[in-house]
User: Fold this.
Amino acid sequence: MPIHDQGYRRYRGGKAGGRAWLVIMKTGIRTMLSDKKFIVLLAAAWLQFLVRAVQFYIAANFSQAAVIAPKADTFRDFFDKQDIFVYILTVTLGSRLIAQDRRVNALQIYLAKPLTRAEYIFGKLGILASFLLFVTWVPAILLLGVQVVFAGNFEFLKANAYLFPAITLYAALEVSMTSTTMLALSSLSTNSRFVGIMYTGLIFFSLALYNVLRFITGSTRLSWVAFGNNLTQLGDVIFRVTPHFQTPWPVSLLMVVVLIAVSALVLERRVRGVEIIA
Amino acid sequence: MADSDPIVTLANVTVTYGRQQALADVTTTFLPGAVGLLGPNGAGKSTMIKSLLGFVAPSQGRMHVLGLDVATSPIEIRARIGYMPENDAHIPGMNAVSFVAYCGELAGLPRSDSMQRAHEVLFYVGLGEARYRNVETYSTGMKQRIKLAQALVHDPDLLFLDEPTNGMDPKGRDEMLELVRDLAHNKGVNLILSSHVLPDVEYTCDSVVVMDKGRVAASGPIAALKQPRGRVYELRVKTPVDLETFFGRLRAAGLECHSTDEDIVRVFVPGDGGARQLFALAAAEGAQVRHLRPSVPTLEDVFAQSVGQD
Assistant:
C-alpha cells in the first residue's frame, strides 16, 4: 500500500479469542493509573504499611520496644485499618465500572464483540479486585516479609505459619464480597454517584439495623444483618482471634455467600446488550 | 459457503417483548453485498439486528449468520461481524484512537495490529485529524463516524449498520453514504443497512428487505422490485369533492396513491390501463386533470406498496 493511501484495507493478521476479559481488565487498570488523584489515593493506602514497617524495625532492633513487637493480631488489625481505603476505592472506582458503560450505551459495543457477558463481568471485576488486593493482600504479605528481614530469622513466621494462608483467605473473601456487591450495584444505575450512595447506604443502614437489634435483644447474635460484621466475624476466625460477635461463623459465611450469589444474579440480569422494557 | 449463498437467513423467527410481538414468524434471507433493511419506525428492523447479534433470544425460529447458527455460535459470529448501533455509544474516558484500538483488541486483534488499524480506519472514516480528541467531545456526526470505525477495526465479513445517518447534517450524511457504498462495492464488505430513509437504502444497497409491523413485506434486488407491474404517474387534479374522497375512489378502483412533499400525488396504475384508466376515472368523478406525467417507479413506490402507506 502506498504511504499516501489512507483507504480501508482488509486485515490479514491473526485473531486470538478468549482473552477479552484480560483486555478489559488491563485497559481499566491502565486508565485508572493515568489518573493522578487515583495514584495519590493508592499511595495513601500504603501509609499504614510504612508505619507498620517502622514498627517492625523498632521492635526487632530495640529490646525496650518489645511491647510493639508484631503478633498475629497485628495482621488482623492491619486489615481492619485498611478497611477505610477498601471503602474509598470501592466507591470511587467500583461505582463507575458498569454504571458509566450503561450511561453511554457501551454495553452494546462490548457485547457485539466476541466476548461473553461473563467475560465482560470478570474483566470489570478484575479491575476493582486488582486494586483492592493491591491495598490489602500485597502490603500484608510484604509486611510478613519485612518482619522476617528486620528480625533476621524465621521464628515469627514458623510460630505463625497459618498467617500466610489466613491473609490470603481473608483478602480473597473481602475482595470477592466487596467487588461483586459494588459491581452489582453499579449495574443497577447509570449514575455512578447514586451507586456510591447506594453502597454507603447499604453498609450504614445494615449496621444501624444491627445496632437497634442488639439494643433490643441485648445480644450480638444478630450481627449477620450487617454486611460488614460478617466479614469481621470471619476475619476473627481466620486470624484466630477472639470473635467480636456471638454469631456462629458458618452463619456469617453463609451471609457472605448469599450476598455474592445475589450480586451474581443481579449482574446476570442487568448486563445485557439490549435493555428490554416490556 | 459459496459466494452466492445467503449471508444471513431467518426461518420462522418470532421475537416478543412481553405481549408485544416485535418479529412475527419472519422468514427471509440476505444476499451477499449491500442489503437494505427498510421499514418505518417500529417495524422490527433493530429487533432483527439485535436478534442476529444474539442480544435478544427469539421465542421460536432459527437464524444463521455467515453459515453459523446464532443460537449455538454467537461468539464465532461476533468475531466476524461489525455492529454500528443506532444510538450514541462509546467507551467513556477514551480518545478516539484508544477507543477504536480497544475495540480491535476486544475483537481479538493483537495490541500493535489493533493500534495500527485504529489509525487506518479513523483516517478512512474521516476522523484522522480528530483521533486524539476525547470521544465525549465529538459532534453527533463525528460520533456516527467513530461508531463505524469501531465496527470496522477488526475487518468484519459482515457489517450491521443501524440507522448510520441518524442526526447527521446533509454533507455528513452524503459522506457517510459514500463510505457505506465504498465498503460494499469496492472493499468487499457485506453489509446490512437498517434505515427508514429510502434514498439512503436506494443509493447504497443492491437489494432490500422491507419490514412492516414485524413482518417481511417485500424482499429482493431493488432493480427487480422496481420493475413495473403497472405504471406510475405524477398527478395533480382539481376536484368538485375534496381530494381525499377522490383518492378514495381511485383506490376503490384498484389504483394506489401516495402523497409527495408537493401538491402532487404519485399514482400507481396496475396492469395495462395506464393514463387512459386514470382519465376515465377523473372524468367520471368530474375532476380536472391539471398535471399528469409518467414517472419511473422508485423504491419509495415499492415501499409504499409493501407497507400500504399513502
Remarks:
- The longest helix of chain A spans residues 192-217.
- The CA atoms of residues 130 and 197 of chain A lie 23 Å apart.
